[in-house]
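User: Can you fold this complex?
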Amino acid sequence: MEKKIFSAVGEKEVTRAIVNEFAKQFSEYVESDCLIIGAGPSGLMAGKELAKKKLKVLIVERNNYLGGGFWIGGYLMNKLTVRAPGQEVLSELNIPFEEVSKGLYVADGPHACSKLIAAACDAGVKFANMTVFDDVVLREGNRVVGAVVNWTPVEALPRQITCVDPVALESKIVVDATGHDATVVKKLEERGIVKTVGFGAMWVERSEDLVVEHTGEVHPGLVVCGMSVTTTYGLPRMGPTFGAMLLSGKKAAEIVLQKIK
Amino acid sequence: MRIPSFIYLYDSGKTESLNLNEISQYLKNIFKKSKIQIRDDIITCYLSNFFFKEREKVIDNLANQMTKIKVREIEIKNTVFEPLQGEIEYEKKRLSESGNKSFGILYDGFELMTILSKLIAKEESDFSYCHIVFTNQLFSTWDEGDLRYHARVSVYGFPSVISTTGIVEAPAKPREFYLKKQLWIDIYTLKEEFRGRFIDYDDLRMTEVMKGYVLQAIFYHITGNPFCKDKNCRLYNAHWQEEVIQAQLNKNSEYCKKHQKIIKQFGTENFKNEYI
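Assistant: Here's the predicted assembly.
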C-alpha cells in the first residue's frame, strides 16, 4: 500500500473546518469583555495583558497582518528603538535587544513583532483581521458599548456594487489603538461627542512620557492608548521609538481592569 | 525703588540640577536685609492649607484651570475649548504628585501667573513680598509682532515664574543645530555634538544660570525693568542659548557697570527703601 505523508482529507472538509471554526469563534466574540481596535504594539500589549487576566478579548485589525508599525523602525529599516524602561517589556517577552547608548535599546523588528503577536495569542486574545472599524455602538449617555465593523475589502470597492451592511460587536469596554488616525475617537468627534486636538510637533524627549500619562478613558466606555493618544490630546508626536507604545498598552489594560471590575 | 523684605523661592520639586540653597545664599549676599526663604513647590504649599478631604476638590479645580490655559494652537491666541476628561486627569495627577516629572505641555505664561497668584496668601500679597516660583511647566507668551506664541524662560510679575524646561526649550540653540536637524540627524546625536553650547535638562550649570533669572525677577519687582541691553550682564534678555551662556556664565563680570552699582547699593545702609 502506498504510504502518504498527509491524511486523506477532501476540499469540503477543509472548507467546513474554516467556516465552522471561524463562525464559532466570531459568534462567541460578538460579545466580549474588551474590544480593541487596532493590532499595533499598544493594542497587542493591552490585549495580551487583559487576556492574561482571563478577560475575553477581541482585537479588530483592518490589515491582514497584525503588528502595525512594529515590524519596522523609522525609514523602512527593520530595527526598533526602545527607551528605558521599555526594554523591561522586551525582556518579559523574551525579545533579544542590545543597549546602543545609555537608556536606548535596539531590537530586531520582525523578531520583536512576532514575539508580541505570539504572546497575545498565547494569552488567549482572538483576532478579527481584514476587518475595518466603521462606527461605534452607543447606549444611554452616549456610553460606548461596542463597534460596528465590516470586511476591509468592502471599503475598497465602488459603492454601487458593494451594498454590504456592517455588523455590530458588543463589549464592556472599547480600546482605540488605531494609531495616528484615532479612528474611534474621531468617530465620536464626527458625532459631536468629543473634540480631539490633533497631534503637535515632534518632541521625542517628552512625547513618550506624555503618551503614557494621558493613556486612559477619553469618554465613558472608550479607552485610548498608543499613538491615538497623541491625536486625541494634541500631544507632540515622537520619532520611531516604541517604548511608549508598549507601556501605554500596559497602562490601558490596567485602566480597563479598573473600569470593568 | 522698593526692596522686598521677604523673598520666597518656591522649589519646582522636580529638577535635581536646581540647587535653591545656592541661589538663596547668592541672594543673601546681595539683599542683606531681606529675609530669603526656600519653600516647597507652590502647589504643595497651597494644598497644605487644606484638610485632606478638601484637597481633592482644590486639585480638581486647579486641574480644570490648568487645562484651560494650555496652548493648543501656536498661531491662535487664547483658544477657548472644552477640555477632555483625560486632560483634566493628567493635570490632577501632575498636581497631586509633587515628584511627578512629566511635562511637555505648553501653557500660556501670563495665564499661568494669574492662576499661581491666587495661591498666594492674602497676608503675603503686598510689595514687601517677592514670590519667585520655579516650575517645570513649559510656558509661552503671545507676541503681537508675529502673531504667535513663543516659549519663554520666565514671566515676571506677582509671582514671577521661572521655567526649568523653558531654559532648555525657549532660547534658540545654535543655528547649525537646526540645519542639521533638517537633515534628520536624531536629537540625541545632535545634543552630543553640540554639548555645552546650550543648557540641557539636568544640566549642572542650571543653578548658576538661574541666579541671573532670579535677579531679573527681583529687579522687575523693585524697578519694573528686569532687563539690561548689555550681553555680558546677567540681566540681559537672551533669546539664544549662546546668549544665555554668555550672560549667565561669564566669569569675568556678572553685571554691567550700571547694574553692578545698583546691586552694590542694595546692601548699603543709605539705600532708600520704604519697606526695611
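The longest strand of chain A covers residues 167-176. The CA atoms of residues 67 and 114 of chain A lie 8 Å apart.
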